Amino acid sequence: MLTMTRASLASPIPLYLQIADALRDRIARGVWQQGQLIPTLEQIAGEFDVARVTARQAVQLLMTEGALTPQRGRGTFVSAAAPSIKPVQVVTNLQELAEMYRSTTPELLTVDENSRVPAVGASLGTLAPAYTHMKRVHSTDGALYCVISLYLDERIFSTSPERFRTQTVIPLLMDLKPCPIAKAHQTLTIGSADAETARLLRVPADSPIARVERVFNDRDGLVIYYADVVYRGDVVRVEMDLGGTSLRKK
């Protein structure tokens, strides 16, 4: 039996939403396929060690979303096919990164915009006088795949605020004449989704995620762009050409 962990119980996210996330994830991964009969409310309640009413709330939420359909006398069935999320390739140079954003054309949902300074160490560069901070959720074909918290030098943002609000920032920076990016660096780490990230990406809390810290500096070492990007762990793909050795016959 899968019981809710202490972290889950202490989470500000209601239990039925956490269970709905777990059930939604099963559909997304194809564990529950379209047309399949799902377990009963009693079985779901027993699996997660919660009350039947909590299990019913979770299932009803997925019914509202159209993922599940009840059939009188038969049970509840998966009505929506698993969403297809294109893998996100981790690239290793700035030009490829810009092209990736141009080719994928993610759908943007800004969940916050304000003036805020990034909390970065001096080793990453000198901070600009002011930044525009935007927190966004990226999706493709309606499937959410990353949350990005980015900071853009206010002086650059003010040159074309509407475009920076409605388009991906990196291609816009690359198209500026002259391009202000003199140095670009990113760091990839693996972790698990916190409650807020899980809510925005609609995945279970503590799901695996890939976090990318991305920093662009101008020629004077000023941080003109800083981003903390969190990708769903199941969409990230890393490919590395390790080369090879040729065997010589003696």
Automatic annotation (TrEMBL):
Q: Give the GO molecular function terms.
A: DNA binding; DNA-binding transcription factor activity
User: Which InterPro entries does the record associate with it?
Assistant: Bact_HTH_transcr_reg (IPR050679), Chorismate_lyase_/UTRA_dom_sf (IPR028978), Tscrpt_reg_HTH_GntR (IPR000524), UTRA (IPR011663), WH-like_DNA-bd_sf (IPR036388), WH_DNA-bd_sf (IPR036390)
What's the domain of life for this entry?
Answer: Bacteria
Q: Which Pfam families match?
A: GntR, UTRA
- What keywords sit in the KW lines? DNA-binding, Transcription, Transcription regulation
**What is one Gene Ontology biological process annotated in the Swiss-Prot or TrEMBL record?**
negative regulation of DNA-templated transcription
Instruction: Give residue ranges for domain HTH gntR-type.
Output: 13-81
What is the protein named? Transcriptional regulator, GntR family
Q: Which residues form a coiled coil?
A: none
